[in-house]
Amino acid sequence: MSDRKNTKQYIRSLIIIYNNMTLSSNNFKALVQQTAGFDTNYHWPMSIEKGIQAMMQQLKLSDPQTLYQKLVQSPDLLYDFIQQFTINETYFNREPMLLETVASNLVPELLIESQHEKHINVLSAGCSTGEEPYSIAIAMIERYGDGCWKMFDFYAIDIDIEAIMTATQGIYNSRSVHMLDQRILQTHFYPINNSHYQLKKDIRNQVNFYRMPLQKVKHFFTVPQMDIIFYRNVSIYFDPQTRQSIFNHLSDILRPGGYLIMSPTETFAHDFKRLALIEKQGFFVFQNKKQPTESLFAHQPIVNESQKKSLLQCKSLNHVVELASRKRYEFALNQLDEYMNDNDDLQAHVLKACILINQYQLSQVRAICQEIHQKDRLNEAAFLLLGQVDRLENQLKKAQFNFSQVLNINPQNWLAHYFLAKIYEDFSDRHHAIDAYKAVIKLINIGKFTAHGLLFFPLSFTMSDIMFLCQKRLEMLE
Ligand SMILES: C[S@@+](CC[C@H](N)C(=O)[O-])C[C@H]1O[C@@H](n2cnc3c(N)ncnc32)[C@H](O)[C@@H]1O
């Protein structure tokens, strides 16, 4: 009898749950759709009822109403609920040619175009288990070498916390890595067993993962700070309204000149005229076009082609100078080599020697200066650098000769006077040392501090330091 009673009670409770479920499953669905923006045609990878059941079990809840209330009250719980229905399909190197275009075309362009030295900030929006942001990071290290991390910051966001956790562990099965070639696999991954690989820590450490719905992205990155946004294979699941609003949010956090990259099937549906749709090496991408006033040529009246070229040359060399002043020597030299492949420009050779002398690559500096002198016998900067190399190698007579050559070409080069003064002191030639220090003070007083003939010459002292130094030396010598 009691067994029958129990069974009846059990069936009754099942009916109540069933009724509640059928009553509320549409509400749950609407809640997910509203929050995640899934389209009505969305292909749910799991039924909403199954998702409700799983969540109720996990939270040890006996009725869906309580679950619904909890979901409405706690965004984190709601994201946990939603992530049961997300589609995480992804793998490494999904579009190799696109990555190549980003690394070889977009990144250099962004660096050259930037008004000031900066990091390139890259965001993977809807990063799933991390294959996309890591593929971008691998493409950068392959293109720019070990030192490139200083140049990039990688961010990756997804609503799915489990996907994010997988991403931070960086362990992938062979399907995930099937598009990577063996060399990349061997260089950047450790094999864990026959079918699993772990991405090496140095690359894992580069990507900052965040759990967040894309609807909130603008609150997190409050200013336009992204240079490249990958937003691929995510919007296909959204309703038209959500598509437009997320696209707007992402556009808002894009720096002027920055790129937003979607998959080919998504791109044309997002041409809301908010960003310019342009073609790069066969790929259609969105770009946040700069205001015309910020353009390089905006303030030029009419610029002919050769003037344009020299302006661009000047701008990219300035960029290298900026990188070098931040002690990013390796990157500066890479950029410079690329520039020199396309331009036969003596200033670029001088700049290279200036950077190399800071790295104490004296024989290379000497070789470059000799090359410069073959093309331009009276190149002031090359004599100055040669004098420096001689001095560093303690060949003072040769150094004296080279600094004197500088002054034959440009008597106003205070740096040459200064180095000569030091050499005269070493030679105990008091009179010449005094004359040379006086020349330095005079030249700086008449505003020649920057007239030392070098594009890049990091001085560890200021103009007033050098004046003070010279005056002190004069007091000692006179
Ligand atoms: C198919 S994967 C795409 C992964 C990667 N972008 C790629 O192309 O390989 C879609 C990802 O978007 C995430 N997603 C869906 N809706 C989201 C939302 N509203 N906010 C953040 N991420 C979302 C899903 O969790 C899923 O991991």
Automatic annotation (TrEMBL):
InterPro entries recorded: Bact_Chemotaxis_MeTrfase, CheR_C, CheR_MeTrfase, SAM-dependent_MTases_sf, TPR-like_helical_dom_sf, TPR_rpt
Entry keywords, A to Z: Methyltransferase, S-adenosyl-L-methionine, TPR repeat, Transferase
Any one Gene Ontology BP term: methylation
Annotated TPR repeat ranges: 380-413
SUPFAM superfamilies named among the record's database cross-references: S-adenosyl-L-methionine-dependent methyltransferases (SSF53335), TPR-like (SSF48452)
An example molecular function term from Gene Ontology annotations: S-adenosylmethionine-dependent methyltransferase activity
One Pfam family linked to the record: CheR
Ranges of residues in domain CheR-type methyltransferase: 28-291
Gene3D superfamilies according to UniProt: Tetratricopeptide repeat domain (1.25.40.10), Vaccinia Virus protein VP39 (3.40.50.150)
Record protein name field: Chemotaxis protein methyltransferase
Organism expressing this protein natively: Candidatus Magnetoglobus multicellularis str. Araruama
